[in-house]
Design a protein that fits this description.
The chain is α/β, with parallel strands linked by helices and 249 residues long. α1 packs across α4. It binds S-adenosylmethionine. S-adenosylmethionine binds next to β2.
């Protein structure tokens, strides 16, 4: 039986990392008001929900595999620590914000884990897990697409030409990262980003299974879910939802 609870050493490493984070610098980056209230309120839930998610993910990943993280930040620290120190996996972790990357890395000293400031599309090699949560619908990078994804588009001000441009960029970003998967593989993503993953699978004629459970997150607040991507030689095609098992897993 797969053990679901994290080891005490992993939980200790997560909590040590959260203690070492520079919250006043992070406050300026994560919240417009830039005050300490944001992290006073969010730090505990972020650590707690991150550990819960790490426990769930632990049972879905094989030891010593490779994960690609797109746009990871504080929220992903628990899962990254679990993957590296508990499962002995290697992780390629990308974030475009150089200042945030240096604050995160300063708190990770002593752990086999570093954030990289740059585009995830530049990651080299293949992966059996892709984490892409609250990136393809990020209002900072894709304002029109984000408004549409979250059901907040204003019909008076919505810019369809800008939306079409953003949709091309997002499809390219998602496709470039998904092409790096060695199947069978797992994708962790937010519920709002599911269509990008299932669309890529449909175009590639690859079977995928969207797990029915959703898990809350504490910063962006988008719930995340898991999508299993079938192995290369499966005959069944299409998207399955809520089916207990996918052949090849
Ligand atoms: C809304 S934040 C989400 C942060 C985190 N995943 C969370 O849920 O709290 C989106 C992040 O995606 C990053 N990002 C956007 N495009 C990226 C790319 N091509 N490669 C790596 N990171 C990217 C941005 O730098 C930003 O940090």
């Amino acid at each position: 039986m797969v053990r679901r609870i994290l080891s005490p050493g992993t939980v200790e490493a997560i909590s040590r990392t959260f203690q070492k984070l520079n919250y006043s610098s992070l406050g300026r980056m994560y919240c417009d008001e830039g005050d300490d209230a944001f992290w006073k309120d969010r730090r505990g839930p972020c650590q707690k929900l991150g550990i819960k998610l790490a426990e769930v993910l632990r049972g879905r990943l094989r030891p010593r595999g490779r994960s690609l993280y797109v746009g990871a930040g504080v929220a992903e620290i628990p899962v990254l620590v679990m993957e590296t120190i508990e499962l002995g996996r290697s992780v390629a972790v990308y974030n475009l914000r150089a200042e945030e990357v240096s604050v995160l890395n300063a708190a990770l000293t002593g752990l086999p884990l570093r954030f990289i400031s740059g585009r995830a599309q530049s990651a080299v090699g293949s992966f059996d897990h892709l984490w892409i949560a609250s990136v393809l619908n990020d209002p900072e990078h894709f304002p029109q697409l984000s408004a549409l994804s979250y059901g907040r588009a204003n019909p008076v001000t919505f810019d369809p030409a800008a939306f079409a441009r953003e949709r091309r960029l997002v499809a390219k970003l998602a496709g470039t990262c998904l092409d790096k998967l060695r199947r069978p593989a797992l994708v962790t993503t937010s519920v709002e980003e599911i269509p990008w993953i299932t669309d890529w699978c449909a175009r590639r004629k690859v079977t995928c299974f969207v797990e029915p459970n959703e898990y809350p997150t504490a910063l962006v607040g988008d719930p995340v879910c898991f999508i299993r991507i079938a192995g290369a030689r499966k005959r069944a095609r299409g998207v399955r939802k809520g089916v207990a098992r996918l052949k090849g897993w």
